[in-house]
Write a structure and sequence with these properties.
heterodimer; A: 285 residues; mainly alpha; two-stranded antiparallel sheet; 4 strands; B: 367 residues; Cytochrome Bc1 Complex, Chain C; 14 helices; globular; mitochondrion (chain A); transmembrane (chain A); mitochondrion inner membrane (chain A); membrane (chain A); metal ion binding (chain A)
C-alpha cells in the first residue's frame, strides 16, 4: 500500500515536473518566435559562409579579394587600427606581396628633424587611418564618424550576415521615411537611415584574379576579409578544436575503465546479516 | 613540512568518504579546478593588461592580436567564468536536492564563495572596458547608492570621482586581482568544514560506518573532470564568443550607452528580478535577497525527517523558474515580458521560501 502510494506520488511528481518544464519552454518559444511592430529593423538572412561550419575554415581566396575591396573602397573612410601589414604574411599573402601592399600605402611619420613627412609603409605599420582623428572623420561624413573595421564582424549582432545584408541592402526610402542629404535608406541598419551611402556597385572595382566583381561578390569577399581581421586565429582554433575532439573518446575509455577498475572491489561488495548462534534476534509471536 | 603533508593527506588521501557519492559530488572538485585555471590564465593576462581607461581596450586587443597565443588564454579565461557559474549552479542545486545545507558551516561558506565569485566575474567583465562592460559597471555601481546614509558616499568612493572613470577601472583591476586569493583561502575553509563531518550522500545518512579512503577511489572518480575540461576546451575553441555580446567588441564610449543593456547569462536571473520591481530600493533589496535567502537554509534544524520527494519537486520547479527568469532578463522591457518577470520573480521567491518552510513543517509532521 505504502509502496503504491509512493510510486503514485513519484509518477505524479514527474508528470507535474514535465508539464511545468514543457509549459515554460512553450511559453518561451512562442514569445521568441513572435514578431513585434516595434522591431524597427529588418533582421539579416542567414548565408552559407565557407567558414560558418563548426570545423570549417576561411576561403582564403575570398579573404584576399576582400582585402582588395577594403583597400580600394572602404579604406577611403574606415580605419583598421589593429591590423598591421605583417599580419598578412603567410596567412593571406606571401611576404613579398605583403611588403608590396605596405609600400603602396602612405604613412604619416616624423623625419629625423621632427618634421611631418609621408613615407611608404613597411610590414610593421598598421593599415593607415584615412582621418587624422575622430572629429575630422565625423566632420567629413555628415557628423557620423565611420567606425574602425578591425573588430566589426564581431561587434554587430548578426555578424557576417549583417554586414553582407547592410552592404547590399540599399533601397529607395519608402514614403514617410525622411532621408537627409548625404544619408541613405537601408532597412538593415537600426533606425533605417545610415550615414554611409551605398559603396558597392557591379564592376565597381576589378579583381586581380579575374573574378567578376558583382556587387554581391564584393560584399561577400569584404565580409570574409573583415571576419578574418576580427579573428586571424579563427582557422587555428577550429583546427585545434578538431584535434582535441578526436582525442576525447580515447581519454574517456581510459578514464572510465580506470575508475571502474578501482571501484570493482567496493562495487561488488555484498552485505549479509547472518544470525550468530546464541545472539539470534528475538522471535516473533 | 610534515604537518603540511599530514594536512594534505587528511584532505585528499585518507579522508574517510561515503561510498554513495554520485557524479553530482564531482561538481565541487570541478570548481576547485576552475578556480585554479582562472588564476593561472588570469595571471597570464595580467602580464599584458593595462588598467588605464585609454589603454585598457587596446591592451586587451593586443593580447588577442599580438601576444603569442594570447588569444587562447583570453578565450579560456572569459569562457572559464561561464564554466565557473555552470558548476556553481549545479553545485548549489545539488545541495538543495540532497539537502546538503544540513552542514551549516559548509553551506554558509559556500554561499559566501558564490557571492565573491559574482563580484569577481563582474569586475573582470568591466576590465575589458568595452561598451557593454562600461555601462554594466555604471548600472551596477549606482545600485549601491540606495544604501541608507552612506550610499552616495560609497558610490563616489568606488568611482573615485563623479562617474565611472579610469580611476574606477584601476580600483576594479586591483580587486579583481586580489579577490581570487581570498577565494582560494575560503575554498580551503569550505573544504575543512566539509571534512570535519564528511559529505552528505544520496542516502541522506552520513555516519562514520562503512567508508572508503578518498584515495584512490575518489581520485579515480574525480579525474572524470578531465572529460568536462576537454569538452569545455573544444567548445570554447569552436564558438568562443557565443556567450558574449557584440557590444563587448566596441570600445567604451562614456557619451553613448548601448540601446539594450544586458549582463552575461549568469546574472540574468538576478537582473530580471531587479527590473521586475519598479522601485529602485525595493529592486535592489530583492536582488540581494535572491541570494541571501539561501543563507536561511542554515537555520533549518531537521536531521530526522524530510519530505524528500516534495523537496525534489520544489527544487526542480525552482530550477525551471530560474531558467525562465534568466531568459526574461535579456528580453526588452515591454509587455508581456514585464508582467512575466514579476510573475516569475514571485515564483522564484515563493518556491525558495516554500522549500525552506516545508523542511520546518515536516519536522512537526513527523514528531
Amino acid at each position: 500500500m505504502q509502496r503504491a502510494v509512493a510510486a503514485g506520488t513519484k509518477k505524479f511528481a514527474i508528470g507535474v515536473g514535465i508539464a511545468a518544464a514543457a509549459g515554460a519552454g512553450g511559453l518561451v518559444y512562442a514569445l521568441e518566435k513572435s514578431v513585434y511592430a516595434s522591431d524597427h529593423v529588418v533582421h539579416p538572412y542567414h548565408l552559407p559562409w565557407s567558414h560558418s561550419g563548426k570545423f570549417s575554415s576561411f576561403d582564403i581566396a575570398s579573404v584576399r579579394r576582400g582585402y582588395e575591396v577594403y583597400k580600394q573602397v572602404c579604406a577611403a573612410c574606415h580605419s583598421m587600427k589593429f591590423i598591421h601589414y605583417r599580419h598578412f604574411v603567410d596567412t593571406i599573402m606571401t611576404e613579398e606581396e605583403a611588403k608590396a601592399e605596405a609600400a603602396e600605402a602612405t604613412i604619416n611619420a616624423l623625419d629625423d628633424r621632427g618634421q611631418t613627412i609621408q613615407r611608404p609603409g613597411i610590414l610593421t605599420d598598421a593599415l593607415p587611418n584615412p582621418y587624422a582623428n575622430k572629429k575630422a572623420a565625423a566632420a567629413a561624413n555628415n557628423g557620423a564618424a565611420p567606425p574602425d573595421l578591425s573588430l566589426m564582424s564581431l561587434a554587430r549582432h548578426g555578424g557576417d550576415d549583417y554586414i553582407f545584408a547592410l552592404l547590399t541592402g540599399y533601397f529607395d526610402a519608402p514614403a514617410g521615411v525622411k532621408v537627409d542629404e548625404g544619408k541613405a535608406y537601408n532597412p538593415y541598419f537600426p533606425g533605417g537611415v545610415i550615414s554611409m551611402p551605398q559603396q558597392l556597385f557591379d564592376e565597381g572595382i576589378e579583381y586581380k584574379d579575374g573574378t567578376p566583381a558583382t556587387q554581391s561578390q564584393q560584399a561577400k569577399d569584404v565580409s570574409a576579409f573583415m571576419h578574418w581581421c576580427a579573428e586571424p586565429f579563427h582557422d587555428t582554433r577550429k583546427k585545434w578544436a578538431l584535434k582535441i575532439a578526436a582525442f576525447i573518446p580515447f581519454v574517456a575509455v581510459v578514464l572510465i575503465y580506470g575508475k571502474r577498475h578501482i571501484w570493482t572491489f567496493t562495487k561488488s561488495q555484498k552485505f549479509a546479516w547472518k544470525p550468530v548462534k546464541g545472539r539470534e534476534p528475538p522471535k516473533q509471536h | 613540512m610534515k604537518g603540511l603533508m599530514n594536512f594534505v593527506n587528511s584532505l585528499v588521501v585518507v579522508l574517510p568518504s561515503s561510498k554513495t557519492l554520485t557524479l553530482s559530488w564531482n561538481f565541487g572538485s570541478m570548481l576547485g579546478m576552475v578556480l585554479a585555471f582562472q588564476i593561472l590564465t588570469g595571471t597570464f593576462l595580467a602580464m599584458y593588461y593595462s588598467a588605464d581607461s585609454l589603454l585598457a581596450f587596446s591592451s586587451v586587443q593586443y593580447i588577442m592580436y599580438e601576444v603569442n597565443f594570447g588569444w587562447i588564454f583570453r578565450i579560456f579565461h572569459f569562457n572559464g567564468a561561464s564554466l565557473f557559474f555552470v558548476f556553481l549552479y549545479l553545485h548549489i542545486f545539488k545541495g538543495l536536492f540532497f539537502m546538503s545545507y544540513r552542514l551549516k558551516k559548509v553551506w554558509m561558506s559556500g554561499l559566501t564563495i558564490y557571492l565573491l565569485v559574482m563580484m569577481e566575474a563582474f569586475m573582470g567583465y568591466v576590465l575589458v572596458w568595452a561598451q557593454m562592460s562600461f555601462w554594466a559597471s555604471v548600472v551596477i555601481t549606482s545600485l549601491l547608492s540606495v544604501i541608507p546614509i552612506w550610499g552616495p558616499m560609497i558610490v563616489t568612493w568606488i568611482w573615485s570621482g563623479f562617474t565611472v572613470s579610469g580611476a574606477t577601472l584601476k580600483f576594479f583591476f586591483v580587486l579583481h586581482f586580489l579577490v581570487p586569493w581570498g577565494l582560494l583561502v575560503l575554498m580551503l575553509v569550505h573544504l575543512i568544514f566539509l571534512h570535519s563531518t564528511g559529505s552528505t550522500s544520496v542516502l541522506h545518512c552520513h555516519g562514520d560506518y562503512d567508508k572508503v579512503c578518498f584515495a584512490p577511489e575518489y581520485w579515480g572518480k574525480d579525474v572524470y573532470n578531465i572529460l568536462v575540461w576537454l569538452v569545455f576546451i573544444v567548445m570554447s575553441l569552436i564558438s568562443p564568443f557565443v556567450l558574449g555580446d557584440a557590444e563587448m567588441f566596441i570600445e567604451a564610449d562614456p557619451m553613448m550607452s548601448p540601446v539594450h543593456i544586458v549582463p552575461e547569462w549568469y546574472f540574468l536571473f538576478a537582473y530580471a528580478i531587479l527590473r521586475a520591481i519598479p522601485n529602485k530600493i525595493l529592486g535592489v533589496i530583492a536582488l540581494l535577497m535572491s541570494i541571501v535567502i539561501f543563507y536561511f537554509f542554515a537555520f533549518v534544524n531537521n536531521y530526522t525527517s524530510s519530505l524528500v520527494k516534495l523537496n525534489k519537486l520544489l527544487v526542480f520547479s525552482f530550477i525551471v523558474s530560474s531558467v525562465v527568469l534568466s531568459w526574461l532578463g535579456q528580453c526588452l522591457v515591454e509587455d508581456p515580458f514585464t508582467l512575466l518577470s514579476v510573475i516569475f520573480s514571485l515564483l522564484y521567491f515563493g518556491l525558495s521560501s516554500t522549500l525552506l518552510f516545508v523542511f520546518m513543517f515536516s519536522k512537526k509532521l513527523f514528531e
